[in-house]
Structure formats: C-alpha cells, structure tokens
Design goal:
Number of domains of chain A: 4
Shape of chain B: globular
CATH topology of chain B: Rossmann fold
Number of helices of chain A: 19
Largest sheet of chain B: 5 strands, parallel
Number of strands of chain B: 5
CATH superfamily of the largest domain in chain A: GAF domain
Strand order of the largest sheet of chain B: 2-1-3-4-5
CATH architecture of chain B: 3-Layer(aba) Sandwich
Largest sheet of chain A: 6 strands, antiparallel
Strand content of chain A: 15-25%
CATH superfamily of chain B: Response regulator
Radius of gyration of chain A: 58 Å
Strand content of chain B: 15-25%
Helix content of chain A: 40-55%
Largest interface: A-B, 24 and 18 residues
CATH class of chain B: Alpha Beta
Bound molecules: adenosine-5'-triphosphate, magnesium ion
Number of domains of chain B: 1
CATH topology of the largest domain in chain A: Beta-Lactamase
Shape of chain A: rod-shaped
Radius of gyration of chain B: 12 Å
Helix content of chain B: 40-55%
Number of strands of chain A: 24
Strand order of the largest sheet of chain A: 3-2-1-6-5-4
Structural class of chain A: alpha+beta
Structural class of chain B: alpha/beta
Oligomer: heterodimer
Distance between the termini of chain A: 147 Å
CATH class of the largest domain in chain A: Alpha Beta
CATH architecture of the largest domain in chain A: 2-Layer Sandwich
Chain lengths: 794, 116
C-alpha cells in the first residue's frame, strides 16, 4: 500500500511538474499519460478531448496506439467507450472491452493488442473536458485504487487543460487584438478600393478561420450600389456559389436592422427558408456603418462541419467592420476623387489641344489654309484629334447646298503607315507642322478629290450630311448599312460603314459639316470622341466664319475699288461726253452746209467726173454724220419709252433694212423667230438700234460672206425674251473680248467703237442682259435678253 | 406764195435752207438770231418758221416762246444739231422736229407736210 501510495505520489508530483512546464497541451498530455502508464505498470494510455463542437471527443494523445490516429479519431458523445464515458461522466473499467456492447472497434488504432482498459472522465466541475484511458496488454481487473488514481490524474489533467485553455484564451485574445491591429494597419495602408476589399476579406477569413467572405457596399459616395439587393462587390472564390444563394437575404437583414446577424446553421435558419437545401454552415454578417448610415455588409461563411460562429466571433468581426467602414469610405471617396482628377486631366489635355489648334487656326485668315489646318488637326494623332480621315463641307447659301471643300487623310494602309510613322518619329506638334509649312505640301489626294465632288442639296433635308446641318446636331454612325439616314451612295463613296459627322456652327448658324472616320485603324468612334470633335468643330466654325467674313470684306473692298474706278471712269466719261457733244455740234453744222451744197451741186453739175467727186464728198459727209449720231446717242442718257412691243417685229424690220446689203456681201440669213414670244415692254427704236449694232458687227465680221443667224425665243422659265445673233466670222479676238463694251474700242479702220457700248446701254436701260461667246464651230454669238415686266413670270 | 422765216445763226445753213425752200416755191426770209427773227415777225406775217435751237444771244427756246406770243398759230419746225431736245419740245411746242443733216429731205418733208 505504501508502495502504491508512494508510486501514486510519484505519479502525481510528476504530473504537476509536467503541468507547469512550458510545453504545449498535446505534449503535456503525452508526457502525462506516459507517466501514468509507467506508474501503473501498463503499456498503453490515451486522452480524448471534447472538440470545438462540444459534442464529440477526439483522440489527442496516445501511447501504445497507432500515432496516425491521434487528432483524427473522434467519437460523438454516447458512442464508443470514450463517448459513453464523456456522456456519463463516470469512470469505467472493462476487463474484456471487446465483448462490451459499448465498444466500437476502430482497426486503424491497433487497439486489438490490448486486453483490458480503464477509463475516467476529465471533469471541470460538472462539465466533461475529455476522457483518459489506461490500456493493458495483460488481462487486468482494475482495483478501486486504480480507478481512484486514474480519477485523480484526470482531475490534474483537468487543471492542466483549463490552464492551457486559459493560456490559449489569453493567447487567442492577444492574437485577436494583434489581428485587429494588423487588419487596421492593413486597411489604412491602401486607398485602392478593390485592394482594400480583398484585404478585409482575406484578413477576416483567416482570423476567424472562415471559409470565405462576401462584401456588399451601398450608399457610398460615388459608388453606385442601389440597395441591399446588390450582388456582392467582393466575394472570395470559395464562397461564390453559396453567397449567390444566401448572401442577399442575410445582407438585407443586416442592413435593415443595422445589427450583426448570426446564422448558426444555414440549412435550418428560418431567415433562409427561401434557399432550400442550403449547406449546414454558419454565417456571420455585420453592417459597415459610417456616420450612422449603413454603407455595406460584411459576411463570413464558416466551414462545413466546423463549430458554428460564436458571439465572440461576431464581436470580433464587428470590431474589424468599424475600422473597415471608415477605410472603405475613404477609399471610395479617393476613388471618386481619382475619377474626377482623371477627368480633369483629360479635360485639361483636350483643352490644351483645342488651345493649340485654336491658336494655329487664328494664325490665318486664308480659307484654304485654314481648312487644311482644321482637317490636319482632326487627323493628327498626339496633339490632334487622331481620326484617320476627315472631310469638311460648307454650306452655300446661294444655291442652298452643302458643298465638299476639302478632305485630308491617307489613301491607303501603306500611306497611312508612312504618314503616321513620320509624325510619331518627328514628334512634331501641330504648331510646328504649320510653321514649317509641311502641312500644305500635300498633293491633291484621292480623298480631297472625293470631298470636293460632294454636293448635297439642303432643301429636302435628307441624308446624314444635310441633317447634320439642318438639325445642327452630331451623328455617330456605327453601322451605316442599317442607318436610315445613310445612303448607299455615301457609304460607297466613303468606303466605310462607320463614321461621325458634326455641324460647324458659327453664331447659331450651321455653316458646314466635318465628317471623320477611322477607315484604317477601325477604332470605333466613341461618344466621347464625338463630344470632343463637337467642341473642336465649334472653334473651327468660328475661325471659318472669320475667314469668310474676311474674304467677303476683301471682295467687297475690291468691288468698291472697281466701283470707284467705274465712277471715276464715268465722271471722266461725262466730261468727255460733254466735250464730245460740243465738238459734234460744232462739226454737225458745217457738215450740213458741206453736204447740203454738195447735193445741190450734184443736181446742177453734169460732168461725170465732178459728179463722182461730189459723191465721195457726200459719202464722207454721211459717214461723219453717222459718227456724230452714234456719239451723241452714246453720250446722252438713255431714257426709254417702254411700251409692249413685238421683238420679232423689231427683228424683221432690221432684216428688211439690211436685206440688200446681206445679198451684196453674200451672207446667207438663217432666222428662227419663236411663235410663242409674247409682247415685251421695250423702247422699239432703241431695241432696234441695239439689234442693228450687233447685226452690222456680224456682217462686218464676215468679210468673205457667211451665215448670219437670228433667233428669238422665250427664256426657260418664261421670265425673259431673248434675241440671239450669230455669225460665221473669225469670232471676237481675245483682246477685243475685254474691251467689247468700252466706248471707242474698235479694231476697224472706220469704226467708232460705239456700237456695242450703245447696245449695252440700251439693254441695261431695259434691265436686260447682253452676253457673247465664241462658238466652237467658229464665229461670234451675241444674246440680248429682255425681262418681262414684274407682272409676268416671277 | 407762202412765206417762210428761216432762223439760224450759221450763215451757210441759212443760205442752204433758203435755196432749198425757194426751189420748192416758197418766199424765204432769213434771220441770223432771235431778236432779228422777232423783228421780222413784226414786219411781216409768215406761214412757217424754221428755228435753230442753239444760237448766240437769245437761244432757240426763248425765241420760240416769244415768237409764239406774237403769233400763236404760226407753225414752227425746229431744226437743230441737238438730237436730245426732241423729247422735250418735239411734241408740244413745235409742229416738227428735225435733226440738221446734209440731206435736207427731212426738212423738205416736214415743210411740205405742214404747208401742203
Ligand atoms: N461679230 C463680231 N465678230 C468679231 N469681232 C467683233 C464682233 N462684234 C464686235 N467685234 C469686235 O468688237 C469691236 C467693237 O465693236 P463695236 O460695235 O463696239 O465697234 P465697231 O464695230 O468697231 O465700230 P462701230 O460699231 O462704231 O462701227 C469691233 O471692232 C470688233 O473688233
Ligand atoms: Mg459696230
């Protein structure tokens, strides 16, 4: 007995020494059972501990058994000897356990070596912490002192376990705090929202030994997430499926209540009745709260078979969540700010480009140069807008059409590669390009020819080009083939299916269109591109408007100079006219005497020679009188006595007048007088004179005979009546062309050069027009057009 | 025999008109300016007057007015180197308006038409 006591004491003191050593619980237990087995002179011992579920025991230390099963062999309460003892909380000695109905044989353990066993529960008050076994290879009938010793040992082990648990608790707590601290540090280390969410997820998943994490965000500044029904913003891969099934319901409740939610078993929780067959896992879900508002929900999914999450876990997650909420809000705000900054940067870049282009454009008032700058800017990469090809069309108010002015862009892939390669190699800015003048050296390209061939009527308002002007809006044509506003003709001319048009608007008026495409790179034109192009077009339109105004001013200036010259000319003419009038009168009187007496003489003289001389005098006098007549009628202002007259009748009179002469000059007359010519308001005498002047010219032009053509016809539209006189002479010489209507211009030895000027003035007095041209077949053709009164035609 | 007064400041024209009209069988008196013409009108009654427009001293328009004051019924043929007066006087103040020409046919026609 003493021996036993001594041995007992030795065992117990050994155990307490082990308990106080600084080794981990499993090692302690291992040592302790070694001591017991030795002390009780047995060759096997083991310890089962209640596991995390609190409803089963797991083999934690063993001697004499297969070490492989340590940590793996588990008996639920009530099953096997270990389970029975743990549940019944009473010691049990079995001399022949293999025949006991409670025994469960697990071959992997190697238990069959043993014959007998004794087990005692490890108790903490009335809570069972585990079971200790002593195994004997020899048949062994345990004495009560054996059982007492084992029970005492179990009590000591209980103390060891509790101490270890306490220590573990403190360690866990410390670790938890460390984790919280670490997570806190991690969370403030990044402002990248995605990275932050991933950090939160992995840290909490690790810290709580969870399967995975899902994060939902809502009401965050700049983060679009309508409500709780949003899919997770971040979800660990491992729980993607289960979150898709359960996440929203849990998050909704969490967000709605603003409190943590603990789901012990997803398979049975009433919250998840709508997700039948949910796996039996535990879920904790905690709201992210920032400034009293729920900004998100963080949820952790437990592992299947693990003990459910505890209130402690929930508390832990809530602690992390409070830090995470702030970090997430900051990151979201930063993200938004970054977006804004990026936007501001692009805007600034675009504005810089526009400024560059703007100053380039303002450097010229020459329209052609300006258009080239605009189109180069539209097609240049880097400092330009970077479209592949660009065309510019301007409206023509007079004809109410849209007219292609210029196109810039490479004709082929080859050329595109070369041109753009060159640009990027030289890194030239638009300004540089313009200043070096290289910009303007482009030969006439195919695209330019195409652009210049485009004419679009604006009356009908059909087609994308016309609509761009009429509706003053941009079109981004993604698929021309299916677009109702894009005609086949345009698509085939451009050889692209996608392009964009923007109006050129200056002072609220659409003055043209810019058309761009990416024929070679096929890069889709984005709405952003179109917006930028629109801004660009606005600036371009103002520059074009300025250039047009300038050129109008220039022509106006020129017109005024011409008018002024004409005025000076007409003043000169007036002075000259007055002088001429004076002279002609002074000449006319003596001519009357000379001619008058010569005539009288002719009647009295019989000598043939004398008669011949007198005829010469009379001839010259007649000619001089003709000159005077012409001069005077040119000089005097033409005031017309308009009355309805028949142009055909006038023509017939003139023909009758020259009938003989035509025959003498062997000139054939071809006349065609329109039947449908209604009377026109004319001064008969004057129009007759106008026609005579042209007819005499025609006759004089055909020295060796020819054909005189006279035609009358109503001008298309019925607004004018026309007389057309043609000859088969040499035509009007280049020099004469510029002087035809200048008084005193003549190429004839005996001409006054007043014929056509008089005709011109007469026609002008009738508000008509006179035109001439040299026929291709030879000879000149003059056309007089007299308008019908305002009452007709229109 | 019908009497005609020729008023013209060009001597050769007076002579030409006188010979041409006398050849037609009229009795012709010539005056070289407006004042003399009016004096001649006082001295005798004329069946027709040919009147130049531009003369030294009193011009044709003034002469025409005064002459018509004396004898509003006397036919006047304006004979002038100025074509442009035609519209102004042609129709209302005179009975005929001819532009002076070496070919006196126009004058002779006008006179014959008035005096028969
Ligand atoms: N049908 C024509 N064919 C060729 N040249 C012409 C013709 N008509 C006019 N011209 C040219 O225009 C010039 C001016 O013509 P215009 O009738 O004004 O004067 P003119 O015929 O020379 O003189 P005038 O008419 O006084 O006898 C002519 O001298 C001639 O050179
Ligand atoms: Mg001529």
């Amino acid at each position: 007995m003493e021996t036993t006591d001594k041995a007992e004491l030795a065992i117990l003191s050994e155990i307490s020494r082990i308990s106080n050593s600084y080794i981990e619980l499993p090692q302690k237990l291992q040592r302790i059972i070694e001591v017991i087995a030795r002390g009780m002179e047995k060759d096997g011992a083991s310890v089962f501990l209640v596991d995390r579920t609190g409803k089963a025991v797991t083999l934690t230390a063993a001697i004499g058994l297969n070490q492989e099963t340590v940590g793996k062999l588990t008996f639920p309460f009530g099953e096997g000897i270990a389970g029975w003892v743990a549940e019944q909380k009473v010691p049990l000695a079995l001399e022949n356990p293999f025949s006991d109905p409670r025994f469960q044989y697990v071959p992997e353990t190697g238990i069959e070596r043993f014959k007998s066993l004794t087990a005692a529960p490890i108790m903490d008050e009335d809570r069972c912490l585990g079971v200790i076994f002593v195994l004997s290879t020899a048949p062994w009938s345990a004495t009560s002192s054996d059982i007492t010793l084992l029970t005492t040992t179990a009590n000591q082990i209980s103390g060891v376990i509790k101490g270890a648990q306490l220590f573990q608790n403190i360690k866990d707590r410390l670790a938890e705090l460390a984790t919280i601290y670490e997570i806190g540090m991690a969370l403030t280390s990044t402002l990248d929202l995605e990275q932050l969410l991933s950090l939160i997820a992995t840290n909490t998943t690790q810290a709580l030994r969870a399967q995975g994490c899902a994060l939902r965000l809502m009401n965050l500044s700049g983060v679009r997430a309508p409500a709780t029904a949003a899919p997770a913003r971040y979800v660990s891969d491992a729980v993607r499926d289960v979150d898709a099934r359960l996440g929203e319901a849990v998050a909704e409740k969490t967000a709605r209540e603003g409190r943590p939610v603990l789901v012990e078993d997803a398979g049975r929780d009433p919250l998840l009745v709508n997700a039948p067959g949910a796996p039996p896992i535990s879920i904790i879900s905690v709201p992210l709260i920032f400034h009293d508002a729920v900004t998100g929900v963080i949820a952790l999914y437990g592992r299947q078979g693990d003990r459910p999450f505890s209130e402690d876990d929930l508390q832990f997650l809530a602690t992390i969540a409070s830090t995470a909420a702030v970090a997430i809000e900051n990151a979201a705000m930063y993200e938004r700010m970054e977006d804004l900054a990026t936007e501001a940067r692009t805007r600034a870049q675009e504005l810089a480009i526009l400024y560059d282009i703007g100053s380039a454009m303002s450097a010229t008032l020459n329209l052609d140069r300006l258009l080239r700058i605009i189109l180069t800017a539209a097609t240049m990469g880097g400092t330009g807008l970077g479209f592949n090809r660009a065309m510019l069309l301007l409206t023509n108010e007079r004809t109410n059409t849209l007219q292609g002015m210029m196109g810039v862009g490479p004709a082929s892939w080859d050329e595109a590669g070369r041109a753009w390669g060159e640009v990027s190699r030289k890194h030239k800015s638009l300004m540089e390009w313009i200043q070096t003048g290289e910009l303007f050296e482009h030969r006439d390209s195919e695209l330019n020819a195409l652009a210049r061939s485009i004419r679009v009527p604006l009356d009908h308002g059909e087609g994308v080009l016309a609509l761009t002007v009429l509706e003053k809006k941009a079109f981004n044509i993604l698929d021309g083939a299916s677009s109702p506003v894009v005609g086949k003709e345009l698509r085939e001319a451009l050889r692209v299916n996608s392009f964009a048009t923007v109006p050129l608007i200056a002072k609220d008026k659409a003055i043209g269109v810019i058309l761009v495409d990416n024929m070679f790179t096929m890069r889709p034109i984005t709405d952003h591109d179109v917006r930028f192009l629109t801004m660009f077009a606005h600036q371009a339109a103002l520059a074009i408007d300025n250039a047009i105004i300038h050129s109008n001013l220039e022509t106006m200036n020129k017109d005024m100079r011409i008018m002024h010259e004409q005025l000076v000319q007409s003043e000169k003419m007036a002075a000259l006219g007055a002088m001429m009038a004076e002279i002609t009168h002074e000449i006319r009187n003596p001519l009357v005497s000379i001619g008058g007496f010569a005539r009288r003489l002719a009647r009295k003289v019989l000598d043939e020679d004398a008669k011949k001389y007198i005829d010469i005098i009379l001839g010259e006098v007649t000619r001089l009188e003709g000159i005077i007549h012409d001069n005077l009628s040119y000089i005097k202002d033409i005031s017309t006595q308009l009355q309805p007259g028949d142009l055909n009748a006038v023509v017939r009179e003139v023909i009758a007048l020259y009938d003989d002469e035509l025959r003498q000059r062997s000139i054939a007359l071809v006349k065609s007088l329109s039947e449908s010519l209604s009377p026109v308001l004319i001064d008969l005498q004057q129009i007759k004179q106008a026609v005579i002047n042209i007819v005499t010219n025609a006759m004089e032009a055909m020295e060796n005979g020819g054909i005189l053509g006279i035609r009358t016809y109503p001008v298309e539209g019925g607004r004018e009546a026309a007389v057309e006189i043609s000859d088969t002479g040499p035509g009007v010489s280049a020099e004469a062309m510029h002087n035809l209507f200048n008084p005193y211009y003549t190429t004839k030895a005996r001409g006054t050069g007043l014929g056509l000027p008089i005709t011109h003035r007469i026609v002008k007095a009738h508000r008509g027009t006179i035109q001439f041209k040299n026929k291709e077949a030879g000879g000149a053709l003059f056309t007089i057009r007299i308008p019908y009164g305002p009452g007709r035609g229109a | 025999m019908k009497k005609i007064l020729v008023v013209d400041d060009e001597e050769n024209i007076r002579k030409l008109y006188k010979e041409e009209l006398e050849e037609m069988g009229y009795e012709v008196t010539a005056a070289s300016d407006g004042a003399l013409a009016l004096a001649a009108m006082d001295a005798a009654k004329f069946d027709l007057v040919t009147l130049d427009m531009r003369m030294k001293g009193m011009d044709g328009i003034e002469t025409l007015r005064r002459l018509k004051e004396k004898d509003s019924a006397v036919p006047v043929v304006i004979s002038t180197a100025y074509e442009e007066y035609k519209h102004d006087f042609g129709s209302w103040a005179s009975d005929a308006y001819i532009v002076k020409s070496a070919d006196t046919a126009a004058l002779r026609d006008a006179v014959k038409k008035i005096l028969g």
